[in-house]
């Protein structure tokens, strides 16, 4: 399909979110749509799929003008949107999900189960997915769910598929498979609009790149004619010379020692030391057990055996309360479900773990809270109109800063950050690295779990590589390269 | 414009209350006499105490269906203790403690064994009522207050002309308001209703707080039971039946979300008064009992629809 959106304007009340936005997608093309959070990518895509109406501008499909009033209209023109948070019902089967709302019926409204199952089976096979259509969604892997969404798009003969951050929850293997499928479909004539914050992916997969900033179209480039730096510069509007600013700190004494930590089926014999003023990276494939180890150290998930010592003393951490009292903080990877109460204000979220520090004779002191919150909003450069706005109204990067502030307010000695920059735009990423550096200089011991290799190599002093629930190797930064880390992470490197 | 919106959001239920009061007064001015106003407060105190406890529970996204049964059971035990010669002061303290313990039982099942609040309290509601029937043989304990001046004071007493039930109602409101708004415990109650997993990972003692809200609810129910026993001067084995529904109605009218995390105790205070004014006012202007039920239902719906509009 050939798509041309041009001169798109859109305002919500007094706020103009799109001015002169455009995107031109050719036949058999994987087209990246890039921009920082708030650049207007989602709004543009919602206009394309008929969720929002545009104030001005034109949408042409294969040269013909289109007006979409609803999602149904855009689906009829064979446009499918696969959202980051997949729209699948976990308790229903694959086939029920794929035909949800458009079930095939026989006489008297009886469902045509056989026919639907057959069609679904065909599509799944096309994608190399070997599971029964009757399997419940909750029983298949996240990567497979992504494929079910694609199969759903194929079911409606989609000629343009929009994908929003499809790899955010996938393992490297699953990503490879997904890319292969996207390329195959492209060669069969399907076009893609691909939204992602992961630069490496964009350059690996996409043919064309459209960059947006502040609701406007900035530029369209062929991937082969451009570079990381050029794209980043267009996205943020200025030179972002150094993606990973570093500070060198002589690490202090060991603050935490983990010995033989084991939880059956999750991780085995985890063994490492962490020093003050050190950033220890945890690398490895999705499912290698990194997040589980962090939750065990933080006391939020119990473990079977092994010991944890803090400041040379063996400690028993069986709840996040104990962890906090020992000076340990955990910034969880899933900020929407584990990090923030989205309906709560910036201030209410920030003081959740440290509320006891803001009481006098058992009574909460609102003024003290307001001034501390204001201090951290400024320190971490959180862009928010005020302290009382609900956190769900802020961008991913600003939400992440609030989660970090939450734990900084507890004055941690050990701070664990699990995927601290996931879904965060380039500018905010750099700011988060800056925060990590400042903590490092202040002598805080830091663990960063990250699936982004350049990030791990860029900010960590030592890198723990996990493979299949065990620590495979701990590599000093000077000796680490992407290739070496990858080799250990996939089980090689002996 | 936005300011007016947020004012309305805060005080919308007050508007409903004022409109009700105006309508009732315009039909029968006797409603606005001091005597009747004190009477309204006296009448709402029982539902009020229960509804305050229920607010804590609902804010954590829970529900307590056993409040009426706790009221019935503790009230029955109070009557039996006094008629068998226990001094009323000791009996009152004992049943208040017992209300808290029954709540603790609910709370532990819900927070530690991770059962759903609706199911746990549905079961305990049935079981507590059963115990009440067993120990009373289904027969009320009569003349409970005749030799029990302290118990009698709970419904008939007054301080500076203010009926004691009304004092309990307002004092409980103020104490619980501070507990909910100005302590880390109160913050935890909201946080658990907002997102329990986030609360737990934020090192909030979620299990303890979840248990405590049912303890508060049980305690408030038994306090209401003391007042009711005093007012009736007898312990009825069926006392408190369907009281949970009035309490939940008051909480919901007051704008607290059944999904938890959002709501205010002041809203419940107004919600309790709305139900009270309806009951009292409809009587005063001579509406028949059948119509009263219907009108109450309509007002609950209207209040919730208004609140829904506000929150969007």
Q: In the CATH hierarchy, what is the superfamily of the largest domain in chain A?
A: P-loop containing nucleotide triphosphate hydrolases
The level-1 CATH class of the largest domain in chain A: Alpha Beta
Identify the overall geometry of chain B: globular
Shape of chain A: globular
User: pLDDT under 50 segments of chain B (min length 5)?
Assistant: 1-5
In DSSP terms, counting alpha (H) and pi (I) runs of 4 or more, how many helices of chain A?
Answer: 17
State the share of residues found in helices of chain A, binned by percent: 25-40%
Total number of β-strand segments of chain B?
Answer: 2
Query: How many distinct domains of chain B?
Result: 1
* Span of the ends, CA to CA of chain B: 15 Å
Intertermini distance of chain A = 49 Å
- The counted number of beta strands of chain A is 22
Radius of gyration of chain A equals 24 Å
Name of the CATH architecture of the largest domain in chain A: 3-Layer(aba) Sandwich
The description of the largest β-sheet of chain A is:
6 strands, mixed
Spatial strand order of the main sheet of chain A: 6-7-8-3-9-10
Helical/strand content category of chain B: mainly alpha
Q: What is the domain total for the residues of chain A? A: 2
Describe this structure in words.
The complex is a heterodimer of chains A (494) and B (312). Helix content of chain A is 33%, strand content 26%. Chain A is of the alpha/beta class and 494 residues long. Chain A has two domains: 3-239, P-loop containing nucleotide triphosphate hydrolases (Rossmann fold, 3-Layer(aba) Sandwich), CATH 3.40.50; 253-490, P-loop containing nucleotide triphosphate hydrolases (Rossmann fold), CATH 3.40.50.300. In chain A, strands 6-7-8-3-9-10 form a six-stranded mixed sheet. In chain A, strands 16-19-20-13-21-22 form a six-stranded mixed sheet, sandwiched between helices. The longest helix of chain A is centred in the middle third of the chain and has 16 residues, at 172-187. The radius of gyration of chain A is 24 Å and the shape is globular. The mean pLDDT of chain A is 91. Chain B has 312 residues and is an all-alpha fold. Chain B has one domain (44-311). Helices cover 76% and strands 1% of the residues of chain B. Chain B has 13 helices and two strands; from the N terminus they run ααααααββααααααα. Chain B has helices at 2-27, 34-59, 67-83, 88-111, 117-136, 149-156, 164-182, 184-194, 196-201, 206-232, 243-253, 265-284, 289-311, and strands spanning 158-159, 162-163. Chain B has a two-stranded antiparallel ribbon with strand order 1-2. In chain B, strand 1 (158-159) and strand 2 (162-163) form a beta hairpin. Mean pLDDT of chain B is 92; it is low at 1-5. The chains are: A alpha/beta (494), B mainly alpha (312). The A-B interface holds A 298, 300, 319-321, 323-324, 330, 332, 337-344, 348, 351-353, 355-356, 359, 362-364, 406, 410 and B 178, 181-184, 186-188, 190-191, 194-195, 197-205, 261-262.
């Amino acid at each position: 399909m050939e798509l041309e959106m041009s001169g798109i304007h859109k305002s919500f009340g007094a706020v103009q979110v799109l001015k002169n936005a455009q995107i031109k997608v050719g036949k058999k093309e994987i087209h990246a749509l890039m921009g920082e959070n708030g650049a207007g990518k989602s709004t543009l895509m919602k206009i394309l799929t008929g969720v929002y109406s545009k104030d001005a501008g034109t949408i042409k499909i294969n040269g013909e003008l289109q007006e979409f009033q609803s999602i149904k209209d855009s689906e009829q023109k064979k446009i499918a949107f696969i959202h980051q948070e997949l729209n699948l019902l976990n308790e229903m089967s694959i086939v029920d999900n794929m035909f949800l709302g458009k079930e095939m019926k026989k006489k008297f409204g009886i469902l045509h189960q056989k026919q639907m199952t057959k069609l679904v089976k065909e599509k799944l096979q096309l994608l190399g997915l070997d599971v029964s259509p009757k399997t419940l969604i909750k029983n298949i892997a996240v990567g497979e769910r992504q494929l079910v969404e694609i199969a759903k798009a194929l079911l409606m003969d989609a000629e343009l598929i929009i994908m929003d951050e499809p790899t955010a929850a996938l393992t490297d293997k699953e990503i490879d498979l997904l890319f292969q499928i996207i390329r195959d479909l492209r060669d069969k004539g399907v076009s893609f609009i691909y939204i992602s914050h992961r630069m490496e992916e964009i350059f690996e997969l996409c043919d064309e790149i459209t960059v947006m900033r502040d609701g406007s179209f900035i530029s369209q480039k062929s991937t082969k004619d451009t570079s990381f730096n050029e794209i980043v510069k267009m996205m943020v509007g200025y030179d972002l010379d150094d993606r990973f600013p570093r500070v060198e700190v002589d690490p202090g004494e060991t603050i935490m020692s983990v010995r033989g930590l084991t939880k059956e089926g999750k991780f085995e014999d985890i063994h490492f030391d962490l020093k003050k003023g050190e950033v220890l990276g945890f690398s490895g494939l999705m499912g290698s057990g990194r997040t589980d180890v962090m939750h065990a150290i933080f006391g939020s998930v119990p473990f079977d055996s092994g010991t944890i010592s803090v400041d040379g003393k063996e400690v028993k951490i069986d709840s996040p309360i104990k962890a906090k009292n020992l000076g340990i903080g955990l910034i969880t990877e899933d900020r929407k479900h584990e990090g923030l109460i989205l309906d709560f204000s910036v201030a209410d979220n920030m003081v959740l773990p440290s509320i006891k520090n803001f009481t006098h004779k058992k009574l909460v002191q609102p003024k003290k809270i307001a001034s501390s919150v204001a201090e951290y909003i400024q320190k971490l450069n959180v862009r928010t109109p005020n302290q009382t706005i609900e956190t769900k109204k802020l961008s991913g990067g600003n939400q992440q800063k609030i989660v970090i502030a939450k734990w900084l307010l507890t004055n941690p000695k050990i701070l664990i950050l699990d995927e601290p920059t996931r879904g965060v735009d380039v500018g905010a990423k750099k700011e988060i690295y800056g925060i990590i550096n400042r903590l490092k200089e202040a002598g805080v011991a830091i663990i960063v779990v990250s699936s982004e290799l350049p990030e791990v190599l860029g900010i960590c002093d030592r890198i723990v590589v996990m493979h299949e629930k065990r620590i495979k190797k701990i590599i000093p930064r000077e000796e680490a390269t992407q290739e070496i880390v990858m080799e250990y992470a996939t089980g090689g490197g002996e | 414009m936005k300011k007016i919106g947020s004012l309305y959001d805060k005080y919308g239920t007050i508007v409903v209350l004022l409109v009700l009061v105006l309508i009732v007064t315009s039909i029968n001015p006797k409603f606005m006499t001091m005597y009747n106003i004190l009477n309204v407060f006296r009448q709402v105190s029982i539902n009020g105490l229960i509804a305050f406890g229920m607010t804590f529970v609902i804010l954590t996204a829970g529900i307590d269906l056993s409040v009426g049964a706790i009221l019935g059971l503790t009230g029955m035990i109070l009557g039996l203790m006094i008629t068998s010669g226990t001094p009323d002061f000791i009996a009152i303290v004992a049943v208040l403690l017992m209300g808290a313990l029954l709540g603790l039982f609910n709370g532990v099942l819900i927070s530690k064994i991770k059962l759903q609040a609706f199911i746990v309290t549905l079961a305990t509601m049935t079981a507590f009522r059963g115990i009440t029937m067993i120990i009373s043989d289904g027969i009320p304990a009569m003349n409970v207050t005749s030799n029990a001046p302290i118990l009698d004071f709970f419904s008939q007493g007054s301080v500076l002309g203010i009926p004691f039930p009304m004092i309990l109602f307002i004092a409980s409101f103020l104490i619980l308001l501070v507990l909910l708004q100005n302590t880390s415990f109160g913050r935890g109650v909201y946080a658990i209703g907002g997102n329990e997993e986030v609360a737990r990972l934020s090192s909030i003692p979620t299990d303890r707080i979840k248990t405590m809200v049912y303890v508060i609810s049980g305690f408030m129910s038994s306090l209401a039971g003391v007042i009711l026993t005093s007012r009736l001067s007898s312990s009825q084995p069926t006392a408190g039946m369907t009281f949970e529904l009035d309490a939940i109605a008051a909480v919901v009218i007051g704008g607290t979300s059944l999904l938890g995390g959002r709501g205010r105790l002041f809203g419940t205070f107004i919600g309790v008064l709305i139900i009270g004014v309806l009951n009292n006012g409809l009587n005063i202007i001579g509406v028949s009992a059948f119509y009263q039920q219907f009108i109450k239902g309509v007002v609950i719906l209207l209040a919730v629809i208004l609140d829904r509009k506000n929150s969007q």
